[in-house]
């Protein structure tokens, strides 16, 4: 995974001096020793790499990674990825409540949420949304917690509801979800961040936690 982490970024190339691949390796190995229950899971390389680019500091990146994986997003990067799978199901339930026409479209064509949003959750929008927008989202993520991920996802879906509903088959739906993460709506980060706090409407942690409990039980019962 080291060579696949931001290959287009000059600071991560082996010819760079200093090469941030070495820093990334140190952070990931240290975290694997620190949190043996998680160790290393695919996707963590992008999260840690982004933190290194932001902080330019190995120790700060380590502790921010620990805050994300250990406190804000528990079980996202554990071997079973139960937290990640649960939250994707929670998003599906929230879409049923807030954008029911899209939920009905997904159900009618048998499209599982994990197929269209897994990278949103695993990479926390890295390489999906523009860099400046991702940085603003991460500010809110550290300050307000995981609720922000749902706010961003719901805003993208709600703003592009008419466009998504044009889809007529399974591949078309998947393609629409790729396209809604591009364009001026997401590049204008200031207005986008305002939208994520208004478009989804009320979204309490009590509601999210209740849905998490239900979705987690459902996933566990499915084995």
From TrEMBL:
The keyword Metal-binding does not apply. The keyword Cell wall biogenesis/degradation does not apply. PROSITE patterns: TBC_RABGAP. One of its GO terms (molecular function) is small GTPase binding. Keywords: GTPase activation. InterPro entries: Rab-GAP-TBC_dom, Rab-GAP_TBC_sf, Rab_GAP_TBC_domain. Gene3D superfamilies: putative rabgap domain of human tbc1 domain family member 14 like domains (1.10.8.270), Ypt/Rab-GAP domain of gyp1p, domain 3 (1.10.472.80). It comes from the Eukaryota. Residues 1-145 form the Rab-GAP TBC domain. May act as a GTPase-activating protein for Rab family protein(s). This is Growth hormone-regulated TBC protein 1. It comes from Phoenicopterus ruber ruber.
């Amino acid at each position: 995974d080291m060579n696949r982490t931001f290959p287009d970024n000059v600071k991560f190339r082996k010819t760079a001096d200093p090469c941030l691949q070495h820093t990334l390796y140190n952070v990931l190995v240290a975290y694997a020793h620190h949190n043996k229950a998680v160790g290393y899971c695919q996707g963590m390389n992008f999260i840690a790499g982004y933190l290194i680019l932001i902080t330019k500091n190995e120790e700060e990146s380590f502790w921010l990674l620990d805050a994300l994986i250990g406190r804000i997003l528990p079980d996202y990067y554990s071997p079973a990825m139960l937290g990640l799978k649960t939250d994707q199901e929670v998003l599906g339930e929230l879409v049923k409540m807030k954008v029911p026409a899209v939920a009905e479209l997904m159900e009618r064509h048998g499209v599982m949420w994990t197929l269209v949003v897994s990278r949103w959750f695993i990479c926390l929008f890295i390489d999906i949304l523009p860099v400046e927008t991702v940085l603003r989202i991460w500010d809110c993520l550290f300050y307000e917690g995981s609720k922000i991920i749902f706010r961003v996802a719901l805003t993208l879906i709600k703003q592009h509801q008419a466009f998504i509903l044009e889809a007529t088959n399974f591949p078309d739906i998947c393609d629409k979800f790729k396209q809604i993460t591009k364009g001026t709506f997401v590049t204008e980060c200031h207005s986008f961040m305002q939208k994520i706090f208004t478009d989804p409407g009320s979204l309490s942690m009590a509601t999210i936690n209740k849905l998490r409990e239900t979705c987690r039980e459902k996933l566990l019962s499915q084995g």
